Amino acid sequence: MQKRTPLYEAHISLGARMVEFAGWEMPVQYSGHIQEHMAVREAAGLFDVSHMGEVEIRGADALALVQKVTTNDASKLEDNQVQYSTMLNDSGGVIDDLLVYRVNSEFFLLVVNAGTTDSDFEWIKSHAASMNVEACNTSDAFALLALQGPFAERILQDLSDHMLDRIPYYWSQRVLVDGLDCRVSRTGYTGEDGFEILCNAADARHLWNRLLVTGMDRGLIPCGLAARNTLRLEAAFRLYGHDMDETTTPLEAGLGWVVKLAKGDFAGRDVLLKQKEEGLKRKLAGFEVLDRAPARDGYPIVIDGQQAGVVASGSPAPFLKKNIGLAYLPTEHAAIGTDFFVVVRGRNVPARVVETPFYKRDKKFD
């Protein structure tokens, strides 16, 4: 049976089209994914991302456990700072990508992907066995809302006395939002400024409705998974299960910046050290289709007359008005400007490796 977030009834009342996603019944769109995509780029959009999982790690060895199971260096975090990271198996494959919140020296919160929450938790527990630490899967206790777009701060500010402009990018704070206790972080998955609001599950419906009403005059609309996907692709954010998985390493996925080999031992480190010494045989590259035909996930890629891979993520980009994608290419063919073909319905369509991110936001609203 599919799971439902605390906002399921709210989505139904707004006429959302619901689909199965990672074991959850989620809204894929409301008014239409292009309209929702453009609202986030030009005004604001509100997403229900309560399907994401939360794992709390508490105790004297909390930092040691986080360091063991993630690739980034969590020892660099200050209280209330947030860090993007990856979690690897012993073969260096990506189990998940996640956000690491340091609440204090003995309390870390990990926000993980919906489809991997249970397996992530078991992996974390397996490394916690010999440590003075307690790991708890608290996903059911929380809801998570993402308010994204150039007007996000102004909308949320109307519901809080906290000076939101004092929360820098990738930091969080305990904040009262419309009188309700929340953890607000300046993070997101759209390429825009905005916030992710972690609240008690019982408060989700109230906050959802208050945000939509408060932001209506500034163009805020509810947004679904379809717009979330095209927004993140324009920003070249990786999607777990498409752009990386247990068969790929973070180095191949272009996430070397979240791999801190010098921090000491962590799961998969030896494999990454060897891969770095020997050099990558393939890497994730961004490309633009030189044709009106979009390259969809899974379409074959042809180089020198031979299939050389498949499209990891591909879609029309509503704001950029072009067809873009991400794909693993042999390293010698992954340089910017390299041409190749994507097979679209039996036809070889030309494409070219381009710089990523495809989209960078205008910071005039910051």
H/E series: HEEHEEHEEEHEEHEEEHEHHEEEEEE
CATH class descriptor name of the domain at 53-140: Alpha Beta
Helix content: 10-25%
Biggest β-sheet: strands ordered side by side in the sheet: 10-11-12-9-3-13
The chain-level mean pLDDT equals 97
What is the CATH architecture assignment of the domain at 53-140? Answer: 2-Layer Sandwich
The CATH H-level homologous superfamily of the domain at 53-140: Aminomethyltransferase beta-barrel domains
Which fold name is given in CATH as the topology of the domain at 53-140? Alpha-Beta Plaits
List keywords for this structure.
single chain; 366 residues; alpha+beta; Alpha-Beta Plaits; six-stranded antiparallel β-barrel; 8 helices; 20% helix
Sequence-ordered SSE layout with sheet pairings:
Elements: H1 8-13, E1 17-21, E2 24-29, H2 33-42, E3 44-48, E4 53-58, H3 62-69, E5 82-88, E6 94-104, E7 107-112, H4 117-128, E8 134-137, E9 142-148, H5 152-157, E10 172-177, E11 180-185, E12 194-200, H6 204-215, E13 220-223, H7 225-234, H8 269-278, E14 282-289, E15 300-303, E16 306-317, E17 322-330, E18 339-344, E19 347-354
Parallel strand pairs: 3-13
Antiparallel strand pairs: 1-2, 3-9, 4-7, 4-8, 5-6, 6-7, 9-12, 10-11, 11-12, 14-17, 14-19, 15-16, 15-18, 16-17, 18-19
